[in-house]
Amino acid sequence: MSISASSSLFWLLLLLAISITITWYFYRKNTWLSAQNTWVKWIIPLLRGTGIFLVLTLLLELTLLVNRTEVEEPILITVLDNSSSIKQYKDSAQIKRSMNSFVQAVKNRFDEKYQLAFYTVGEALKENAPLTLSEHESNHAKAFNYISEQYLNRNIGAILFASDGNYNVGDNPTYPAEKISLTPIYTLGIGDTTPKKDQIITNLYYNDVVFLRDEFPIEVDLEAFKIKQKQVKVSLTQQGNVLGSQVVNYANQEYTFKQVRFNVTANKIGFQPFTVSVEYLEGEFSRKNNTKTCYIEVVDSRNNVCFISNGVHPDLAALRAVASSNENYQSTFLSPKELVEKGLKPDLVVWHNPTFQFDANVSTYLEQHRIPVFYIISPSATNQELTKLKIFATTNGRNQSDEVQGNLNPGFSAFELSDECKQAIPYYPPLVAKFGAMNPLGNTEALLNQRVGNAVKKEPLIYFGKTKQNVPYGVIYGEGVWRWKLNEFMKYQHYDYFTELFSKSFNYLMVKRAGMGLSVQFDKRFGKYDRIGVNANFYNASLETITKPVINLTLIGPQGKKYTNRFNVSGNHYSLDLGTLPSGTYKWTANTTHEKKKYSKSGIFVVEDIGLEQASNTANHGVLKQLSKNSGGTFSALKDYEKLFNQIEGRADITSIERLTIDFWNLVDSWVFLLLIALIFSSEWFLKRYFGAY
Fold first, then answer.
1. Structure pTM?
2. Burial 161-189 (b: 16+ CB within 10 A, else e)
3. Domains recognised in the chain with CATH numbers
């Protein structure tokens, strides 16, 4: 460690001379001091001079530079595949023992030379967790994303990754692994790569939502291994009823890929299960992967979203693309007058620049028919024009514009955005908004507040409220959301977060609200291993949320099994955790009583049997080999891990590194320095009093 100062030696010597002079002048004729012992004659002036010198150094705004050198040992990271796919191999018990032995061997060999870190990865990434081989998903990319973020600029010597190479969730792990530069990845293969006699339905392709009486396709990917020349039947059934079947011909080959397409007519509303199965052949590796079920929601009508404006604008095009991407939406574009003249009653109106050529008849029409509106406010709107919309108080801003970005309101509760979407929003470019203070009328909730640079304003940028007639509305207080979409595509090569943001905004505004009573928020689709959560609210006559009523939930599952639960009160709303449930279709009913009146809500949801870990009967060592090749590491079987250990120890580039850290210590801002000055002057005062100086 070394220390240097920001000021030159000349100024320090000058201050020292001034301090000595002042001290001499003060004590030069002090008769009391002359009568004291020798050490007292010296120590008291020394304290005074030192204190004066330290005070004077504050005038220089002296900064000390402290240089520290730290040595960081190389880090050896071990990642183990903890997914249940490894159990399908005939020697799975031995594999588990070998993996545990491998971990112990890493500790024995490298504990004194490296910093060791151990992780398991499946559906989740866990540190220092026991190996269970029980996780139902394989998200290997999660491990490498975590390492690239959490070990950024750290001295990673090498990564050891033991797996069968099969992944079924997330990206190909070779992509995030590329972000871990200059770090060799040593992969250890588990399992058998030799295909077994088997038929596997690998994928079903279908639309999540279709409309009543529409014809829609279900496409099937079928893979066959070591099947001799044979004809097999592929069938599509719905709750035991055969909807169609096709015969597939296999050639006498090691591997055959077939695609089968079924065309189905939607004839029943609700979540409908459709099961595809291929007949079982004697000697197949597994029966489980011969069947696959999908759930498709059949609805009887589309939500109509109408975009109105007196001119074209890229914001309208961007938002209309969101509506067009959802098969449950039907969108139209009209002028405000056309909406009234045609007598249309859409589920939602998106009104761009409503104050331009404002027509009070349009506003009255929307109000009379209780149509939710999503306003896009132009920065050119005047205070008088905004007042006409009946959702703004008069603003005090001038007719000028300002560029503002969005800052997420952590207290927003109307709907939930994904973590990825929340992370993307702060980096969206600014909107052009009207300059000055803006005051919405009534009770509103901001999704985004305005932000200029790092300063967050109280004014909202996107917010939601209700009219006096309890009709929901939303406001984008500015123009330029099309830039958000473009920015996201340039950064991520997709529009997913932009679409999520405004799809959920549209859905929130289109929900039919009856005012007082019970409201239940229940997703319609879950995976077999998902924890199922449900939220509820109860509104009194004043449309205030209350938690006094007791709300019960009844589930009727597959085979008529009945579940009864009671909601828990959480803050000003209700919540219930149902845990995991067996696959199938569930009917739910929520009931409560308030002031002798009964309230009820009902619906359905599905739990899909997503057997991800049975999708393959062989290990995929090709992915492991690619990981090692791209990073400068090597691949070997798990049993040969000693070879990898020798390679790691033989690498000259895996070594300790020295890091130089420079700390800046400003004496003016240092409480330690100020305390030292106070202590010196206090010591001088104490000694003078102790030896009789008054």
1. 0.51
2. bbbbbbbbbbeebbebbeebeebbbbbbb
3. 2-69+662-690 (no CATH), 74-194+618-655 (3.40.50.410), 198-299 (2.60.40.10), 303-510 (3.40.50.2300), 517-608 (2.60.40.1930)
